[in-house]
Amino acid sequence: MNLKTRLIVMNFLQFAVWGAYLTSMGSYLVTIGMAQQIGLFYAMQGIVSLFMPALLGIVADRWIPAQKMLSLSHLLSALFMGSAGLYGMMQGADVQFHILFTLYACAVGFYMPTLALSNSVAYNALERAGLDTIKAFPPIRIFGTIGFICSMWVTDLMGWQANYSQFISCAVIGILFSGYALTLPACPVNSEKGKSLSEALGLKAFSLFKQRKMALFFLFSMLLGVSLQITNGFANPFISSFGSIAEYADTFGVKHANILISLSQISETLCILLIPFFLKRFGIKQVMLIAMLAWVLRFGLFGTGNPGSGVWMFILSMIVYGVAFDFFNVSGSLFVDKEVNKEIRSSAQGLFVFMTNGLGATIGTLSAQAVVNHFVVAPAGLEQTTQWQTCWLIFASYALVVAVLFALFFRYKHVPQS
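Given the sequence above, the corresponding structure tokens read:
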């Protein structure tokens, strides 16, 4: 296989692992009586992202090549996730929170760093091949989203949305990827002598906060990261809750919430292709501002739609998600890659994940759970869906405030490129 094909397979498997459970786990937790802990499960992805991506990024920068660290991380993650699935299979409805949560936490602890590591592997390989990462990477990254969609559909069509099988499926894909990662292009490590302790540990990436531009970029990345996992955790239970209303019980969205939600990822595949044009023409500030406004629409449309006559609002919400997610995550990663020195590439990518999927997502999911617990307290039925709608409008208002602050305070002079 040529280089681009190899990286396409890498991205497909990288996100197929995540797609197996990310959008459906909330429904499984509802099934086993852990609805009030949904936020904790999704927040754990953020908690481990506070330190694991940075730590493993440092190791990949200094001692173990990134492709080997990628392989090891996926193997360990798969073993823990498979154990969580097998535990759920054996215990059925008697699953104990502390056991399931511990196994799951260990699994995501090793998975989350792979988001940054896979980017490092791709950027290194493309650069060594003499290719422009801004032009070459987005079409490759599309196949990560396709992998995510394929896993979502398998989980839905196999009837795994509300049971443990999604964890086992995730583990199987992770083990396959672990082996494949060892075949990827080798990444260099920087083991030169004579460097300071900070440089030797890879902590130089944190010095980026001394630059006003980068400090504000990471700050707003964290604030925008608050929105990242909210729909992943609560969209499936929200849409499924309409099943208790006769008018909506037989609608496609209620019966196949995961497939409806997968329209978000389908939108991603198209929006990724727009990134090179938008970044070069408008720059990172305008691109991230567009992403923030897209999050406002994402949440607002959830708050006003329904699976029946208002399903078009759900569909439109799924479409704008592609802009909301890609124009932030992918563009932000490319921006970091261009703004930092190459010897701290993995550490800087880890820092970006730390701020977004770490601090931001942790604050976001725990806060969202508190909002849901406060408002979604009525018996199943129309009143409950009304309470859900209040939650989505609160999330939309938050995203709007962040967008306004970003427009006012972030300064970045962009020179349009042809």
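The chain has a mean pLDDT of 88. Try to locate this feature in the token string yourself.
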